[in-house]
Design a protein that fits this description.
Elements: E1 4-8, E2 11-12, E3 19-20, E4 35-42, E5 46-52, E6 57-63, E7 65-72, E8 77-84, E9 89-93, E10 98-103, E11 107-114, E12 123-125
Length: 135
């Protein structure tokens, strides 16, 4: 889908604790840095739909498993992926695409490396029922 990039990430195993890469300045999808934050989502809960008008999202799941759904309302196309400790990748979502996500395991942690600082006026939200998707 145009505006979505899925990037495999390095996980370096170490006997005292792993190193999990997230993003470098030279990576595809890097569109500036505004802030980084973690968000948790409980098993079977769904957050969304949200569309950012200026922010590029760079989403990484260092713990648990999360199903992501991106919706392009212009062509009514869906993109889905499940990120987890075992499928360690970064999902980049450009502005003007709808996003929702669902917790798969008991403890799910999401890192967003956002291109701009949070601005409540640049995002639009919809109820889950507003976009039909079979979870």
């Amino acid at each position: 889908m145009d505006g979505v990039i899925l990037t495999p990430l390095r996980r370096i195993h170490h006997p005292k604790g792993d190193i999990l890469h997230a993003m470098k300045l030279s990576d595809s999808g890097f569109d500036g840095f505004g802030e980084a934050y973690f968000s948790s989502i409980h098993k079977s809960n769904i957050k969304g739909w949200k569309k950012h008008t200026r922010m590029t999202l760079n989403l990484v799941v260092p713990q648990g498993a999360i199903e992501f759904v991106v919706y392009n309302e212009e062509n009514q196309q869906f993109f889905t992926t499940k990120l987890s400790e075992d499928n360690y990748q970064r999902l980049t979502v450009k502005p003007n695409l709808w996003l929702a996500f669902k917790g798969i395991e008991e403890n799910n942690l999401l890192l967003n490396l956002a291109s701009i600082e949070h601005d409540p006026t640049e995002a639009v939200s919809l109820d889950l029922e507003s976009i039909r998707y079979e979870w």
